[in-house]
C-alpha cells in the first residue's frame, strides 16, 4: 500500500488527502477572460473559449449562461455585464451535466488502499454537519452520517446505510456556494 507522503521544501510528512488536478494553472491562464478596459477578468472564462482541458482531455465548453441558470447556477452580474461563466460555475455545470468528468476515478479512489480491501459502497450524497454548527461542538460520533458509516464498516454490509436525514452536501446547499 502506498502512503500519502507529501514532500515540501525542507520537510516530508504523511497527509490524509490527495490532490487531483482537474484543470491545471496553464489551462486556467489560457481560458481566463482577457478583458478590455474596466471589464472584470478574474476567474471568468473568455467568451471565445470553446473547449477546456480537464484531466488532460479537451472537453466542449458551453458558455451560454442561460443553460447554467436553468440548472440553478447563478451567474454573477457584478462586474460581469457579458454574463461570462466563472471557474467555479463551470465545475458546478459539469457536476450537473457530466459528474464523472470531475469525480475521482476508481483508480484514484483506491490508490492508497490495499489491493485486497473490498469496496463496500460509494457515498455521493449524504448529510454533512460541521463540527461547529449551531454554536455547538458536534463530534462525528454524534452525527447520523458517521454512525451509519461505522455500522457499515463494522458489519461490512452496505444495507445498513439507511439515512433518515436529507442529503445536503450538494453545492446548491452551501451558503458560500463553494464546491
Automatic annotation (TrEMBL):
Organism in which the protein naturally occurs: Siphonobacter curvatus
Name this polypeptide is given: Uncharacterized protein
Residue ranges with Polar residues bias: 165-179
Region (Disordered): 160-179
InterPro entries linked: DUF7003
